[in-house]
Amino acid sequence: MAQGSRSAAVPAAASFFALLAVAAPLLLCCAPAAAELARLEHPPKDGGSLSLLVVGDWGRKGTFNQSRVAHQMGRVGEQLSIDFVISTGDNFYENGLTGTDDEAFEQSFTDIYTAKSLQKPWYLVLGNHDYRGDALAQLSPVLRKIDSRFICIKSFVVNAGSKIARVFFFDLD
Ligand SMILES: *[C@@H]1O[C@H](CO)[C@@H](O)[C@H](O)[C@H]1NC(C)=O
């Protein structure tokens, strides 16, 4: 984690198609490619700290203990007072979504991560399982209308205060 970050918990392993980095601002000067990425602003807490959860490989309609992990994420999220959640991909098993009207979106996301502490922005990238289905559906703003937490962009940067953290999301597919 970057300097100034207070805490982070990692409930699940990262998807190997998503590459994630939290970099100190100093690093930014050396990453010209990042200049072309969409940038989102996420203000840190008043005290200048940031807490987040990172999860990957999760969408199982509650099975494979997804619901139990979600429950624990809710508890930890409450304790840490998290600011947002990062998903490193493989959001919907086995084969992504069939389209923006796929009920797996609600069954694996909206209806699972119901804890109050998890009602924060989720910044997501796609994994290889997501590409087996309609990848564009997950990138579509239509899903954000159904559940405003779901912020899935192909590659982007989340800027969490100039001196706290920048999170780079690179989709290498
Ligand atoms: C769910 O978690 C329990 C307890 O850790 C474990 O015994 C069980 O095998 C898990 N089930 C699945 C389907 O992974």
From TrEMBL:
Stored Gene3D superfamilies: 3.60.21.10
Pfam families reported in the protein's UniProt record: Metallophos (PF00149)
UniProt keyword annotation of Ribonucleoprotein present: no
Residues in the signal sequence: 1-35
Calcineurin-like phosphoesterase domain segment(s): 51-138
InterPro entries with a match to the protein in the record: Calcineurin-like_PHP, Metallo-depent_PP-like, Metallophosphoesterase_PAP
Transmembrane parts of this sequence: none
Keywords: Hydrolase, Signal
Gene Ontology molecular functions: hydrolase activity
Protein name: Calcineurin-like phosphoesterase domain-containing protein
